[in-house]
Specification:
The complex is a heterodimer of chains A (308) and B (281). Chain A is mostly helical and 308 residues long. Chain A is built from twelve helices and no strands.
Chain lengths: 308, 281
């Protein structure tokens, strides 16, 4: 197990390194720079600014410095948010984004798995059709449509929940964004669980379990659920990607102070270090997630050959 | 092939939901094409006397106007037409790339297949959407780049499906007959493999249309896709989300349009796939 984990870790690091390198050189290849403004700066000031941020050095030297700092967890100074380092900006916003995303993922799993199981057990009955119809809606309609619609209904017309805004520790402000974020992965999970549960329920060992006289509850929880969850484990990394992408728009609609806005704004402002930091952060999260999924897979299905 | 097609058509007819959704798509598409002709308002015309006016059949603005006084009927239909055409064109592009790539990988097999699939695995493991956002912004927001980046996302799944289909037929007699009669690899792929996998593959492709439309409207929502004064459903929804308290129709009309289109396209795609795959039903 440990050897397998180390091997996967060993292949994750080069991937990350390639991503950092491509991202670094792409930002530098782009036309325009972080100090372009309406008024052109006098050349001396421009030269000073460039020198202060190390932009006057050869690009390979800049790349070396960047990598060196990165190894110490330093993403460098932000070019546009003066007096802030990228690490500080991300540090301020990330807890909000993480909280939002973690709750959304928990909801997607916590509601999607039971919903899919129920649909499989009540195949071709009303509960099945209702769940699967809702799942189509959840998959088809993007979160940037769902969230404003929910805000209009529950915020503006019914006054149950705040439409937008953020207070530290207030869960009320997170309800609508979390629902909007969780809905697409929740629907996919419900579908996956339904399909794989149907397959598992048709297999011999489940028939044996029933034949032994085990109650339905035990058969599902002790025998059927674990193999039926394999496709869900495979979907976890895409689910996290979907939630991260969704939070780019959801945070801006709901006015949450997360890090979602930095990616688009940073790129528009040519804030090299900020964009790089965001891309690296998101890539690392995804790669770590992929690693965890592999381990989870091995735990759920011992047939998955470890160390292969 | 013919008998299979009959089965397929029969199972599709037995699915009233999918047929109903198809009818709605046809109606909405017709509306986006012919609708603008029965309304005098242009998409950029500003009506200073009616800014953020509510929808009304009595006035000239059936769906109301936005905060600059632009007619929402004209803009929503324009946006829907843009979104639909991007969805269709980009799906066609990803279909072409996917068929070529998948058929070669599946038919040639061996080390080539292994390498080609490994590339797909790596590409789909990358947080592609962030790179797309990143590229769109850095290399300017032009529409050809938009098509390119959307197509780049779409073809990966397509190639996997085509490869799977190709693997299932590559040992069949007609392929062996073609090899025996001296046909080259290229000829076999184009004349024998692709024509025989294309049916099921096109069915799967119908599900990429709504995915691509969703992606396009997502980019336009962020302000990275279609630019003002042109409209896409995504950019209209972004406008509307900012005004929803005072003028909810600016959000509800394009949002409802996008929701209806995506929902119906998904239902049709699911219906086609289920009709093809008898095991499911």
């Amino acid at each position: 197990m440990l050897r397998y984990f180390l091997m996967r870790l060993g292949s994750a690091i080069p991937t990350l390194f390639i991503i950092v390198t491509i991202a670094f050189f792409l930002t530098r290849a782009a036309p325009g720079g972080p100090f372009d403004q309406e008024q052109t700066l006098p050349p001396e000031i421009m030269a000073n600014l460039q020198a202060a941020y190390g932009l006057d050095q050869p690009i390979l030297v800049q790349y070396g410095h960047y990598l060196g700092a990165l190894l110490h967890g330093d993403f460098g100074p932000s070019f546009k948010y003066k007096d802030f380092t990228v690490t500080e900006l991300i540090g301020q916003g990330f807890p909000v984004t993480l909280q939002l995303g973690a709750i959304a993922l928990a909801l997607a799993l916590g509601a999607g798995i039971p919903a899919g199981t129920l649909a499989a057990l009540r195949r071709h009955a009303a509960a099945d059709y209702a769940t699967m119809s809702l799942a189509v809606v959840g998959i088809a309609i993007p979160s940037f449509v769902v969230l404003p619609f929910l805000g209009l209904l529950f915020g503006i017309y019914l006054h149950w929940l705040p439409v937008a805004g953020w207070e530290p520790g207030s869960l009320r402000h997170l309800v609508l964004p979390v629902i909007a974020l969780a809905l697409p992965p929740l629907s996919v999970i419900a579908r996956l669980v339904r399909a794989s549960m149907l397959e598992v329920l048709g297999s011999h060992f489940i028939r044996t379990a029933f034949a032994k006289g085990l109650p339905l509850r035990t058969v599902i929880l002790r025998h059927a659920l674990r193999p039926a969850l394999l496709p869900v484990a495979g979907y976890l990394a895409p689910a996290v990607a979907s939630i991260m992408t969704g939070s780019l728009v959801v945070e801006s609609i709901a006015g949450l102070p997360g890090i979602g806005r930095y990616l688009v704004q940073g790129a528009l402002n040519r804030d090299y270090t900020l964009v790089l930091g965001m891309v690296i952060l998101y890539s690392t999260l995804l790669i770590v997630m992929g690693l965890l999924v592999d381990l989870l897979y091995a735990w759920l299905d011992p047939r998955v050959a470890l160390g292969r | 092939m013919n008998a299979r097609f009959h089965d397929f058509a029969h199972r599709l007819r037995a699915n009233p939901g999918a047929l109903f959704a198809l009818a709605i798509i046809v109606a909405l598409t017709a509306l986006t094409v012919f609708g603008p002709r029965i309304n005098p308002n242009g998409i950029e015309t500003l009506d200073w006397l009616h800014m953020a006016a509510a929808p009304s059949l009595q006035s000239a603005h059936w769906f109301g106007t936005d905060r600059l006084g632009r007619d929402l009927y004209a803009r929503t239909l324009e946006g829907a037409r843009v979104s639909l055409s991007i969805g269709l064109v980009a799906s066609a592009v990803s279909l072409l790339i996917g068929i070529g790539y998948g058929a070669v990988a599946g038919y040639v097999g061996g080390r080539t297949d292994h390498l080609m699939m490994r590339i797909i695995e790596i590409l789909s493991g990358l947080p592609l959407i962030f790179f797309v956002i990143f590229l769109t912004v850095i290399f300017g927001r032009n529409e050809s780049l938009l098509f390119f980046s959307i197509g780049a996302v779409g073809w990966l799944t397509m190639a996997r499906i085509v490869r799977g289909q190709t693997l299932s037929i590559r040992r069949r007699e007609f392929i062996e007959a073609a090899i025996a009669s001296g046909a080259g690899t290229g000829r076999i792929i184009f004349k024998h493999v692709i024509p025989n996998v294309i049916g099921p593959v096109i069915v799967y492709a119908t599900l990429t249309v709504p995915q691509i439309m969703m992606f396009e409207s997502f980019l336009s929502f962020l302000g990275l896709g279609i630019q003002e004064p042109r409209a896409s459903l995504g950019s209209l929804i972004a406008d509307g989300a900012g005004e929803m308290e005072a003028a909810p129709w600016i959000l509800l009309i394009p949002g409802g349009f996008l929701a209806a289109l995506l929902l119906c396209l998904n239902i049709v795609g699911d219906g086609l796939r289920d009709a093809l795959d008898a095991k499911e039903s």
